[in-house]
Amino acid sequence: MQLVFGQPSVNLKSNILEVVVPKELEVNIPTGLPQVDILFAGDGVMPSTSALVTGQPGLGKSTMMLQLADSLTGQGHKVLYVAGEESLYQIRKRIRSLELKHGFIPSYDTGVMQVIANAKSLQKTAKKDQRVFVIVDSLQCLVLDEDNDTKSTKAKRGRPKKVDPTTRCIELLTMWAKESFGVALMIGHVTKSGDFAGKNSLRHTLDCHLHFEVDTERRSETYQQRIAIMKKNRTGISEQYFPYEIGRTGLHFNLVAVASDSEE
Fold it and tell me: Is 235 within 8 Å of 215 (Cβ atoms)?
């Protein structure tokens, strides 16, 4: 899959040193959570990032995204939290239990084009240096609601080829992020073995893949410690991880990041 967006005008006489990086991409976005900043770009999240967040049930990925959304709001940004798996009443009760103070903008619109339209509306009212984040919980709950017929496209020799809805939703959210300097964070389901429940080719579209798992490879000091590991990272260092614990008020990370010896 190849996406074309946000490209400068170049020709065969151009030199990469002549390309001017947009000022919006020059400064990363601190989230208010130091460990998250380190896992992404070192000092925050790079604008225009699209990221997949995975992990087996019960490891805290949704809780972490709620904490992140609350922290980003506290940093002055706008966060659209698309709830596809829980009612907003349930989420409100979880916010209370986690003792979060800043909140975020809730939504249960799961049509991907409506999600993008909502994000664009927020961007129109955003102040200077205020970024828009879209957090989707979860990716498998998104519905493909494009105006054009995308149920099938022409494959080789004219045979109809079905468009995978999850693939298209990731593609559209990624294009929104790249074109607008927004950030898209999408929670994805995994299989019983811990693998992403979707086409592996989808991860090539994304900039980052943050995965929550139980450490069975003795990477952390404590065997079977919960860890959050950046499996893929175009904006920073991959295979870095933080051990963490889950308490009444959410996830609590160890202070020092660890670099894994394994490669993706």
Answer: no
Residues ≥6 apart with Cβ < 8 Å to 243: 215, 220, 221, 222, 225, 226, 227, 253, 254, 258
Contacts 24+ apart (CB under 8 A), 240-246: 240/38, 240/39, 241/39, 242/35, 242/38, 242/39, 243/215, 244/60, 246/60, 246/63
Give the model's pLDDT for residue 98: 97
pLDDT for the residue numbered 6: 65
Residues 6+ apart with CB under 8 A from 226: 59, 60, 212, 213, 214, 215, 243, 244, 245, 246
Q: Which sequence spans correspond to the domains of the chain?
A: 27-259
Q: If you count DSSP H runs as helices and E runs as strands, how many of each does the chain have, helices first? A: 6, 12
pLDDT digit string, tens, across residues 55-84: 988 899 999 999 999 999 999 999 999 998
Percent of the chain clearing pLDDT 70 (strictly above) = 81
Residue pLDDT, tens place only, 116-164: 999 999 999 999 889 999 999 989 899 998 764 444 444 445 555 567 8
User: pTM score, two decimals?
Assistant: 0.87
* CA nearest to 36, candidates 138, 176, 224, 185: 185
Say how far apart CA 54 and CA 194 lie, in whole Å.
9
Whole-angstrom distance, CA of residue 178 vs CA of residue 183: 8
Which numeric CATH code is attached to 27-259? 3.40.50.300
Beta bridge partners of 81: 106, 135
